[in-house]
Amino acid sequence: AADKINLIPQDFFAELCEQIIQHLNHKIPGVNTAELCQRIQTSGIEINVGDLAKIANIISFLFSTAARNNLSTEELITTLGNAVSALPKHAVQVIRHVWNEQGKSISVSEDARNMATVGQFVDIKWKLGVAMSSDTCRSLKYPYITVTLKVADPSGQITDKSFEMTIPQFKNFFRQFKEMAAVLETV
């Protein structure tokens, strides 16, 4: 991973570290590695979203472990230096700065750890479509709903999950949401 970190410019790496700290502090639901990767690629650096996600997981593990062990900035950098000698100098500088500025704010309560084992809903988008025809059927005129859920998994990676529903399936889906809303009104 150190060779991939070396590819990432310091400003993008700092942004990644900042987002990870914000995620660990429950201020944002996750790190949008796909969007960040696209911006890095637009700047001319060849890196794929899978490698960036691995780096984000490593940094997230590093920060959460340091918070759990209540490490000072110098203890973290010393431990990091002993464990990984191939880490680029700019990465160590960014980690030092971010941890020094915001590391103590990471909450590591037991409730937060237990809650982190479940993904978190971020956004929902939907659209109505109609299949007009196909190569095997001349006139389908078949309506469907496409739903895209944006979900942050426990590690903080934001992913899109898409699915299609027929109109009867959508009506059932909608009815269940109305039932949930009614139950929430009683709480």
TrEMBL record:
**Domain COMM span(s) in chain numbering:** 120-187
**Can you provide one Gene Ontology molecular function annotated for this UniProt record?**
NF-kappaB binding
One protein family per Pfam = COMM_domain
Q: Which PANTHER family match?
A: COMM DOMAIN-CONTAINING PROTEIN 4-8 FAMILY MEMBER, COMM DOMAIN-CONTAINING PROTEIN 6
State the function annotated in the UniProt record.
Scaffold protein in the commander complex that is essential for endosomal recycling of transmembrane cargos; the commander complex is composed of the CCC subcomplex and the retriever subcomplex. May modulate activity of cullin-RING E3 ubiquitin ligase (CRL) complexes. Down-regulates activation of NF-kappa-B. Inhibits TNF-induced NFKB1 activation.
Family label: Belongs to the COMM domain-containing protein 6 family.
Q: What is this protein called?
A: COMM domain-containing protein 6
The opening ranks of the lineage are: Eukaryota, Metazoa, Chordata, Craniata, Vertebrata
